[in-house]
Amino acid sequence: MFADILSDIQGVGMFSWESFVVIGIGIFVLLLVIPNISNGTGLKFGKRTDKSKQIQLLEDEIQLSHQKHLELEQKIQQLISEKAALHQEGVRLHKELQQQRLQLTEEFRTATFEQLQTLLTNYPSIHQMVTIKPDLPMKNLLSMFTPLDNLLGKWGYELIGKPWEQVPYNSQLHQPDNADMTEGELVYIRFVGYQHQGRILCPAKVSRTLPGGK
Questions:
Q1: How far apart are CA 10 and CA 19, in angstroms?
Q2: pLDDT at 139
Q3: Rounded CA gap, 94 and 107, in Å?
Q4: Nearest to 203, CA basis, from 212, 181, 214, 148
Q5: Nearest partner of 116 among 146, 152, 142, 150, judged by Cα
Q6: How far, in Å, CA of 121 to CA of 91, rounded?
């Protein structure tokens, strides 16, 4: 039947056999190309889909990295704050320990001075007596008091006056043997006093006369 149709078409002079062959080859080529075009289009669409997924994954990773970076910065700031707080606490404790040490040292010095006060107030007078009267048997004992002088100097304790020195009476520095002494009156220091950094530890004992009524 198909051959009859072709014969009729050829008979009327519309197409030749060569034309039919060319048309057939063209149709065959189209049948081969169309699936490939469809496959190529599908591949391109698939590639686009894969790229979109990759871009989304990269964006997710960037977001996650950014979040981790922020968390790390917060931890670093927290550590810096804790370090600063620890440093301040260390400085405070150091100052507190220094103050406690100074306070304990001062308390020790005060307690020691109170125990030695009688000796300390009499020693300079004894020293003066031995200097004036070198024949006294106590002369050999004076060298034993040298460490005491060194200790007082190290502590910063200062004498108030010198034994048998004549000075104007000062009620802030002197302890009179008579209550009728007046400010500025010339008196003699019988026993020295001591002061430390402007604080009177014990006033010097004064009298209008020296030992022996002089």
A1: 10
A2: 59
A3: 20
A4: 181
A5: 152
A6: 42
Which pLDDT belongs to residue 3?
47
Q: In residues, how long is the chain? A: 214
Report how far residue 89's alpha carbon sits from residue 85's, in angstroms, rounded to the nearest whole number. 6
Q: Do 161 and 193 meet the contact criterion of CB atoms below 8 Å apart?
A: yes
Q: Which residue has the higher pLDDT, 175 or 35?
A: 175
DSSP per position, 76-106:
HHHHHHHHHHHHHHHHHHHHHHHHHHHHHHH
How many other C-beta atoms are found inside a 10 Å radius of the C-beta of residue 58? 10
Token pair of 33 as six digits: 């190309």
Work out the number of other CB atoms within 10 angstroms of the CB of residue 204.
26
Contacting residues for 70 by C-beta, under 8 A, at least 6 apart: none
Place of tokens 């003066």: 128
The label of the residue with tokens 């009499």 reads 122
CA distance 109 to 131: 29
The fraction of the chain above a pLDDT of 70, given in percent, is 71
Enter the pTM of the model: 0.45
The per-residue pLDDT for 131 is: 77
User: What is the chain's alpha carbon radius of gyration, rounded to the nearest angstrom?
Assistant: 58
Q: pLDDT tens-digit profile of 73-127?
A: 888 888 888 888 888 988 888 898 888 888 888 888 888 888 777 777 777 877 7
Average confidence (pLDDT) over 193-211: 91
